[in-house]
């Protein structure tokens, strides 16, 4: 099996300090959290940023500040969000792509998202894929429902994304695909050969989906964006604590952990 790529989704757009007081919010806190996750075995961070009042923003200046803080500490892969927060416009969401990060997310379909709608119509998909192609940014396809795989393949057939693609199965969002082993297998088996995938199980589904991915040869995403608990009723102390546990489970199963450069090779990233 390939070495395991662990992605840390440090901050997200929805979680607040009221949910978990250890949530990193400022550029310096994000930089420090990324470094701790890197030390614990993460090869990549999935990045969202916040304004001074803690609200989510896609403003490139905030991303630039956070990326500088990360870069001054380690060479972890930075993957910026283009999902942002529900209700943001396409232009707003696309801003960090123009900083030319190594990767950015691309959600290939609309999905209910709790009481909201995460809006990704066909027009957005082409616009986002085109912008990433022009900027030389590799997309990570965010899959909240199985049909989103076909939408990504359609973009590849149109020449807007290079294959093989890398996917993130986001499982257990209220409104999206439930986080079951059967669904995870179905998603993984729906990908063309040569694709790579990771799984982000939401809330209590984080650990079982991560463990399954380790055994199946997939990769893993953990972090406060997806889950704020270490165990039932016990808040996680840090993102790194969640990364450390996944790395430990992987080692128990003789699955080695990828460094950022090994992850770059697995994902065929051109180092910037
Ligand atoms: N915050 C969610 C609405 C992404 O980063 O690409 C979307 C999201 C996905 O977090
Ligand atoms: Zn995100």
Walkthrough of the structure:
The chain is of the alpha/beta class and 272 residues long. The protein has a single domain (6-267), classed as Aldolase class I (TIM Barrel), CATH 3.20.20. It is 36% helix and 20% strand. It is built from nine helices and 14 strands. The strands form four sheets. An eight-stranded parallel β-barrel has the order 1-2-5-6-9-10-11-12, surrounded by seven helices. Strands 3-4 form a two-stranded antiparallel sheet. The radius of gyration is 17 Å and the shape is globular. Zinc ion binds next to loops.
Brief rundown of the structure:
The protein contains 9 helices and 14 strands.
Helices and strands, in order, run as: EHEEEHEHEEEHEHEHEHEEEHH
The geometry reads as globular
Order of strands across the main sheet: 1-2-5-6-9-10-11-12
By helix and strand content, what is the structural category?
Answer: alpha/beta
For this structure, what is the CATH class?
Alpha Beta
How many H/I helices? 9
Number of strand segments: 14
Q: Portion of residues in helices? A: 25-40%
Strand content: 15-25%
- Name the CATH homologous superfamily: Aldolase class I
Low-confidence stretches: none
- Ligands present: (5S)-5-amino-3-OXO-hexanoic acid, zinc ion
Distance between the ends:
27 Å
Overall pLDDT score: 98
Radius of gyration: 17 Å
């Amino acid at each position: 099996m390939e070495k395991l790529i662990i992605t840390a989704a440090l901050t997200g757009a929805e979680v607040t300090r009221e949910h978990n007081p250890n949530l990193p919010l400022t550029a310096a806190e994000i930089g420090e959290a990324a470094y701790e996750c890197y030390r614990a075995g993460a090869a990549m961070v999935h990045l969202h940023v916040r304004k001074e009042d803690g609200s989510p923003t896609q403003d490139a200046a905030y991303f630039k500040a956070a990326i500088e803080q990360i870069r001054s500490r380690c060479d972890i892969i930075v993957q910026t969000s283009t999902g942002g927060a529900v209700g943001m416009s396409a232009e707003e969401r696309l801003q960090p792509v123009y900083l030319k990060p190594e990767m950015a997310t691309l959600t290939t379909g609309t999905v209910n998202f709790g009481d909201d709608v995460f809006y990704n119509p066909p027009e957005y998909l082409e616009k986002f894929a085109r912008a990433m192609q022009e900027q030389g940014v590799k997309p990570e396809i965010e899959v909240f429902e199985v049909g989103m795989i076909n939408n990504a393949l359609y973009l590849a057939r149109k020449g807007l994304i290079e294959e093989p693609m890398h996917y993130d199965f986001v499982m257990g969002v209220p409104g999206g695909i439930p986080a079951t082993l059967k669904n995870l297998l179905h998603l993984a088996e729906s990908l063309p050969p040569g694709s790579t995938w990771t799984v982000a199980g939401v809330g209590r589904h984080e650990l079982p989906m991560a463990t399954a991915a380790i055994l199946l040869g997939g990769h893993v995403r953990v972090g406060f964006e997806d889950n704020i608990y270490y165990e039932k009723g016990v808040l996680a102390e840090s993102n790194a604590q969640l990364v450390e546990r996944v790395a430990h489970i992987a080692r128990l199963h003789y699955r080695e952990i990828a460094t950022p450069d090994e992850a770059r090779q697995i994902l065929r990233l051109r180092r910037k």
